[in-house]
Amino acid sequence: MNSLQIALRVLKVDRRTRTSAILTAIGVAVATGLVLLLATLPFATQNREQRALWQGEHHVGYQLDGPQKLLFNSATDYFDGQQIVRVDIAPVAGAGSIALPPGVPQLPGPGETVVSPALGRLLQAHPAAQLGDRFGKPVGALGEGALRFPEQLVALVGHTPDAMPENAYPLADFPGGKASPDALLMLLSWVGIIVLLVPSLVLVASSARLTAARRERRLAAIRLAGATPGQVTNMVAAETTLSAGIGAVLGLLISPALHGLASFVPWAGGTWLASDFALPIGLTVSIVVAIPVLVVLAGVLGLRRVLKNPLFATGGHTKKPLHWWRLLALPAAGAFFLIAVTTVKETGGIGLVMAGLFLLVGSAAIVGPWVTSAVGGTFVRIWRRPSALLAGRRLRDDPKGAYRASAGIVLAVFAGSMALTLLPTFESMAGGGRSYVDSVLYVDSDGRHAGTIVDQANAALQKYGQNEKAVAVGEVYLVKGQAPNRYGHRALVMTCADAVKLTRYGLTPENCAGGPAVFGDSAVDLAEYKFAASWEGQAVAAKSGTRVEAVHPRDADLSETLIVDPAALPDGLTPTDYTVVAPTTDANREIVRTALAGPAAGAEVGSRDQYLYNQQTELGDLRRVTVIGLIAAGILAGCSAAVATAGSVMDRRRTFGALMAAGTPVRVLARALRMEAALPALVATIGAGIVGVLVGVGLYSMVDARGIVLSPWLLAPVVLGVGVALLGASVCTPALKRVQAEPLADE
């Protein structure tokens, strides 16, 4: 009879071994499915960015290879808090045919547009003055192959060459090439693999330990009967391979369902196509093979005692105490992580940072048992209640087995503390924007087009029955010294009355009395500073009689910018850069945006809420990923804690049976089991929470040197971790009653 036949025979006759094998297969399936999902995320982002390359959002510079066939401009527009990608094109006369990107049915002519289905529905649902007049007459619909995600709002707008904006690119074809994966999601996927894979493997190990004592005695008996170490190893390998292999195949089979669920989770503004989650076959095979191999290897390595001395396995042995040097694993891993995050800018990669994070996660398996043993020693020395003494003796005798129930919880608390350290800090960084109040819309232009945009926008506003008026705000500089060694301030050229109404500088009508002035955070000495149309342009002295007034702006980010009344500009000085600015109300904001979008001819119409859109979208993505990750880690941790507690009861079935036969109440044994599960988890989770905060600070230091923002929510993972430990320990009472109901002689 070969090893596989023996494994099948054992599974057939031993119910508890079957239960352990089933739970092991489920754990391996969960681990395989999670890793396959997380590993495919970078490829998914790359796939959808590949479809959107033609939209040109990241296209920089002029394409000089080949004949110039079209003028191209890409910008973002907004409607009711949603981002619209606007692509403006104009074929060059006599340029010949232009290759269309996948999903683009046709090139729109002047005054026409091809829109995505989601944008088409918006056009039908709202008046043209609010949205439709920005793009022209719809003549076609973009297919899925041209969209980043199904809900994306995209408009391909046609023009004549002379109607295109000044910054339009002359191209030989639509932008193309090879897209890159999302760097942030790639980082999060690696963190997720590290943080979620460990609890999954802990669940596998806990499932395998359900029948550890019985299997150890069985293998020892076979060993004493004359089986060689190789035969015993082959038996265990066959038994573990069977359950782990089935679990890996099951994980591969459920991965499409996980991908389908993931396609509904928004990222960067939208969901996914099911085809985005395509993992290369070679990587898929590697993952499906590697996880069972790790499980089998762990099972084989656990045979050392049975192979060396089977009498110890059958008759018991005295376990060696854990050495204090285990505590060095955490500071050593922390030092490696610290070196990695402080040198990441010089090395240019995050490989060492991920390695340091993995070492920190792995160090918990070394430090955790020592902490568990120390907690058990405290029980034995201080408490005298029977349940506390039983719990303390268990923690002292088998700290590794006792820690196993807390291992997944520790990782979940670590991940939660790390995430809740970073999120409030990222949220505190959100903000900023241009010099204008939140309700203002603006379009950047130049001296040649700004007047035309103002005239056409005001005519459209009048046609739409609006009272708002657009104004052109010039940009000049107050400089000191000679180019190129100059320093000075940027200044906006606008009347004091417009500045009161349109800007965030805090000007009041009282500031406008007294004639032309220069307003700034501090009084600028016009005897030292001169006006220039550009930073390196010719400097001209201010008009005599121009006053200077210090006005503290409402926001600190405006302190370096000045306000200059047009009457204060020297004669002959004309700004080269302008911003067309228009006030809005909540009721007419989209109408005003439409009035500006038409004459802007594809130039971006900006606003403060639009400026914050990407920040808020990214923060929303991070919050969503954090919640999903913590829920998954918490469920895995709770399952592993419950299985580990049940396994602890099964391992000590003889001991508990003898104690109950001697008259020990089940409630005392249950209390002892809850104490040995919950109290070490409390100590370990507090430590994991502190380490998670420190790791979060280290990761944030790679992004920004400013201080971290600490939130009371940092305590939530520790509280939840203890709660999960208690829930996991709640299975001890049913397990003990099961032991009580079965004859002790069965063992």
Describe the structure.
The chain has helices at residues 3-13, 15-51, 117-125, 183-208, 212-224, 229-262, 281-301, 304-308, 310-315, 329-342, 344-347, 351-382, 386-397, 399-429, 450-463, 496-502, 589-600, 608-611, 613-651, 653-661, 666-701, 715-729, 732-741, and strands spanning 70-79, 82-91, 112-115, 137-141, 153-158, 169-171, 441-446, 471-480, 487-493, 517-520, 530-532, 547-550, 561-564, 577-582, 605-606. It has 4 domains: 1-52 and 179-317, no CATH class; 60-171, no CATH class; 326-431 and 612-747, no CATH class; 441-609, no CATH class. Helix 3 links the parallel strand 3 (112-115) and strand 4. By secondary structure, the protein is an alpha+beta fold. The strands form 2 sheets. Strands 7, 8, 9, 10, 11, 12, 13, 14 and 15 form a 9-stranded mixed sheet that branches. Strands 4-3-5-2-1-6 form a 6-stranded mixed sheet. The longest helix is centred in the last third of the chain and has 39 residues, at 613-651. The radius of gyration is 34 Å and the shape is elongated. It starts with a helix and ends in a 6-residue tail after the last helix. The protein is built from 23 helices and 15 strands. The model has no long low-confidence stretch (mean pLDDT 82). 43% of the residues are buried. It comes from Amycolatopsis bullii. This is ABC3 transporter permease C-terminal domain-containing protein.
